[in-house]
Design a protein that fits this description.
single chain; 259 residues; alpha/beta; elongated
């Protein structure tokens, strides 16, 4: 409480000076987590934003967690090996989060940990959950049932989900961009997705390195009413001679033929 009262009395110009001293002139690793935790909330947020722009270079996850604050709307943990315990520390701030990214590494975080966290992120607009090896059907169910305002979804590199999982997210009405590259996506799943709400709202679709996709899905994607960009690089079952340009103009079509 003492620090929050102090925050209200510190002029913005002095706060900006403090940010520069903290981030530019002092190596963050020399600052204890305890001292970072004691910063006023708005100053924490300013430092956190600056660190995210730099890609959290030379910063530890414990230092990032020490900067959590009520003003936080975006957090990217892809550069760290985040665990379920780390996600628990984010829960008090989850109701304001609009953008969240995490990369599965060495078994963490788990699918159950992601489900527990995402179920509290009701205003999330962008979610990036990459490289999960176990089935993410339960995660997709949480996304479809809870994240009604989601506009961007990246599950690239996720090795296992079923048509049931795809059905869960196919009803998202606000979705504009999806990245399902390097996944098990196939023709049946694609059809399930694009014949529902996703098919009417999607503008950008990436499905690079999806070995199960055929030209049937690619041509179906061409004709989605609002699609502007599609990428299907190295989809090995799509043959060079089969690819035809769509009748309607797309902003960009990116493809290369896998060998």
């Amino acid at each position: 409480m003492e620090h929050e009262n102090l925050e209200a009395k510190v002029p913005t110009s002095l706060q900006l000076i403090a940010i520069r001293v903290t981030v530019d002139n002092v190596k963050l690793k020399r600052i204890s987590n305890e001292n970072l935790s004691c910063l006023p909330s708005r100053l924490k947020q300013s430092v956190l934003e600056k660190l995210q722009i730099s890609g959290f270079y030379n910063v530890t996850l414990s230092q990032v967690l020490a900067l959590l604050n009520p003003y936080m709307t975006c957090i990217d943990l892809c550069n760290f090996e985040a665990t379920d315990a780390d996600l628990l520390k984010l829960i008090p701030f989850s109701k304001r989060l609009q953008s969240f990214a995490v990369n599965h590494c060495h078994g963490s975080p788990t699918v159950s940990g992601m489900c527990s966290f995402l179920s509290r992120c009701s205003v999330l607009r962008s979610a990036s959950l990459t490289n999960f090896e176990e089935s993410i059907d339960d995660v997709l169910a949480i996304i479809g049932n809870t994240l009604k305002n989601l506009q961007i979804l990246d599950i690239s590199g996720c090795k296992s989900f079923s048509i049931c999982g795809i059905a869960s997210i196919s009803t998202l009405e606000m979705i504009e961009a999806m990245n399902l590259s390097r996944t098990c996506l196939d023709d049946q799943m694609t059809d399930k997705m694009i014949t529902n709400s996703v098919g009417r709202s999607i503008k950008e679709f990436r499905c690079d390195d999806c070995a199960n996709l055929t030209l049937l899905s690619i041509e179906a994607l061409y004709y989605l009413p609002n699609l502007e960009f599609i990428s299907f690089r190295r989809c090995s079952r799509v043959k060079a001679g089969e690819i035809r340009q769509p009748n309607r103009q797309l902003r960009n079509i990116a493809y290369s033929i896998g060998i």
